[in-house]
Design brief:
21 helices; 0% strand
């Protein structure tokens, strides 16, 4: 098939890319992945400790009611993501990816450590859950700017024939960060006695975010700006109003990305946030067992992502997306039924299969390739920030509500399956992006000069 003509930005980016040493590309990949891992570790802790946080900050409610309140606060961080996405995307597309990503990581580390220092309801009353909401909103702002920036950085540094491989590692570190948070919670739950874990043990995991964040920040500050954005800067083509330009010129791409991210985010949070806590409060499985099985599933997803990404460099992004979406369509309901039984073997098998399906998707490269360099941070942040806020952040609370209201354990799974049907339509509408220039010719790619 005939390739689109390369824009001036693409040709300039190619020249800069060719002059970029391979070790600089590896450092950039490490910087994006380490920072991404740290931020997702921070974010995972809240869901992993949901039952303990419910007792600490909502002690007057029954266990299910307290969990519902805790998941409602969980959703606050997702509702705050669009604010972070819009803020950091604006500066990321105008001034560069590097500094925007450094600020998101520092913000995430500070507010997560603040959660570890937060007094409980017994000490300060309703001020405790109010501060919990505020700090969770801060986490949402930080993470809202993270995904789009790190995906843009990875793809813009990657050689043209290895963008799937690079993006696969970025997607893998989302799973690894979540796995690290769950593993930390499982380790503390297994090694500390109940009273110690409830009193102070869970706080250790949140406090660890600060030194981890500082290490990630140091690594990020040592890299240069991406070749793609350097080209945009040299040509004076940075968007003056990147968010508005994205909504004007890339509406179809935003819709496609929105539908795919909505499915992924909701499925992730139902399986890895809602279900472990639901199994624990219903007595079907100890929290430690549920978290251990979820951890295995996340490690499977992390292992599958780079392999799927490399495969997508050879066969295209859409075949991998189709395979992953169809797997979720067929497996979500039966695997939820299997997990709800709480049996050790069923938990392990269920989480392995769902992890494999999610790992196959490798959305980072595909979503990044949908948008031109001058609008990439904004396009990614709009699709990811809005979709994860509306469908990911609300998923645990909605799942808890659906189960309580209907008495049907599979209601959350049917909800996720409905979103998967929408995602299939989006994949059908999506173009193949593998092998194409990151910036094809035309106004969308090149933008105004001066």
């Amino acid at each position: 098939m005939e390739q689109p003509e390369r824009s001036t930005i693409a040709r300039e980016a190619d020249r800069i890319q060719q002059a970029t040493a391979s070790d600089a590309r590896r450092r950039a990949l490490a910087a994006a992945c380490v920072g991404n891992l740290v931020e997702w570790y921070d974010f995972a802790l809240y869901g992993a400790f949901a039952t303990l946080l419910a007792a600490e900050f909502f002690p007057g409610a029954d266990p299910a009611g307290g969990l519902l309140a805790t998941f409602a606060v969980f959703g606050v961080a997702f509702l705050a993501r669009p604010a972070g996405a819009l803020l950091f995307a604006h500066y990321g597309d105008r001034l560069g990816r590097r500094w925007a990503l450094a600020v998101t990581l520092l913000l995430m580390a500070v507010v997560t450590a603040g959660l570890g220092l937060l007094p409980g309801y017994d000490s300060v009353g309703w001020l405790a859950p109010a501060l919990l909401v505020l700090l969770r909103a801060g986490q949402g702002v930080g993470l809202g700017g993270e995904y789009g920036g790190s995906a843009a950085l990875v793809v813009e540094y990657a050689p043209a024939d290895r963008r799937g491989w690079y993006g696969g590692w970025q997607w893998a570190t989302v799973a690894l960060g979540l796995a690290a948070g769950i593993a930390t919670a499982a380790l503390l739950s297994a090694t500390l006695e109940g009273p110690a874990l409830r009193a102070w043990g869970w706080r250790l995991a949140f406090l660890l975010a600060l030194p981890l964040g500082l290490v990630g920040l140091y690594i990020r500050l040592r890299i240069e700006e991406t070749p793609g954005f350097q080209a945009v800067q040299r040509l004076g083509a940075a968007a003056r109003t990147p968010l508005a330009d994205t909504l004007r010129a890339a509406r179809r791409e935003v819709v496609v990305g929105f539908g795919i991210v909505a499915m992924i985010s909701a499925t992730f949070n139902i399986f890895y946030v809602f279900l472990p806590s639901q199994l624990a409060i219903t007595g079907r499985a100890p929290l430690t067992r549920a978290l251990a099985a979820a951890l295995v599933g996340l490690l499977v997803a992390a292992g599958a992502a780079p392999i799927a990404g490399r495969l997508s460099d050879r066969v295209g992004r859409r075949p991998l997306l189709v395979a992953g979406v169809i797997a979720l369509l067929l497996l979500t309901v039966p695997l939820t039924a299997l997990l709800q039984r709480g049996e050790p073997g069923g938990l392990l098998l269920g989480y392995i299969l769902i992890g494999l399906a999610l790992g196959t998707l490798v959305p980072s490269t595909f979503l990044a390739e949908l948008f031109p360099t001058r609008l990439r941070y904004s396009g990614l942040s709009l699709t990811y920030g809005l979709a994860s806020a509306l469908f990911g952040g609300t998923a645990p609370a909605l799942a808890t509500f659906l189960v309580r209201r209907t008495g049907a354990d599979l209601a959350p799974a049917w909800y996720a399956t409905g979103l998967t049907v929408v995602a299939i339509a989006c994949v059908v509408l999506a173009p193949e992006t593998a092998g194409r220039p990151l910036d094809a010719g035309g106004e969308l790619a090149s933008g105004p000069r001066g």
